[in-house]
Amino acid sequence: MTPEITYPQFQAIAKAIAADPANANYTKRGVEPLFYAGPQCKIMIVGQAPGRVAEESGIVWNDRSGDRLREWMGIDRETFYNSGKLAIVPMDFYFPGTGKSGDLPPRKEFAEKWHPRLLELMPDLELTILVGSYATKRYLHLKSSTSLTQVVRNYRDYLPTYFPLVHPSPRNQIWMKKNPWFDEEVLPQLKARVGELL
């Protein structure tokens, strides 16, 4: 189900990531970096980091959060994984482990090191969907104290290049109920923009 990286330039980056000493513990265990990118990609999805289930299955966004993200985008699993037009590039390509209140955050230096190399190889990207606070604050150069709710509410300020979103985790159900404008105003615009590009 997860698309394979078949382009040599992208395969070379994946090998370099696996060979990086910072990722030695993963590579020793046979864990591959989890991302997908290709030269024809029109949309890039930047999330935080794969979870334990993703690491074990080798399939990113293969959970309830992924189902909800696809619903928000208005696309099915086949399009999400196999259209060749969607890049899936988390802030860290490995599961960072579990802390007291859930998964640990992605490593700080990871995206800075590897994302630019991938972006250079995707000249046709027209939209980057930023999922959650880590991706949003890095790509939009925001302070850590910035309210993600306000950023998402003001999503038009970042179009057409970026589309900030809250994380589609089931844990955000309370947030969704408190902010009905997200379902009413933001998601129709996201679906329309994704539909245009695909």
TrEMBL record:
Transmembrane segments: none annotated. SMART domains: UDG (SM00986), UreE_C (SM00987). It comes from the Bacteria. Pfam families: UDG (PF03167). Residues 34-191 form the Uracil-DNA glycosylase-like domain. InterPro entries: HI_0220.2, Uracil-DNA_glycosylase-like, Uracil-DNA_glycosylase-like_sf. PANTHER family: URACIL-DNA GLYCOSYLASE SUPERFAMILY PROTEIN. This is Uracil-DNA glycosylase-like domain-containing protein. It comes from Actinomyces graevenitzii C83.
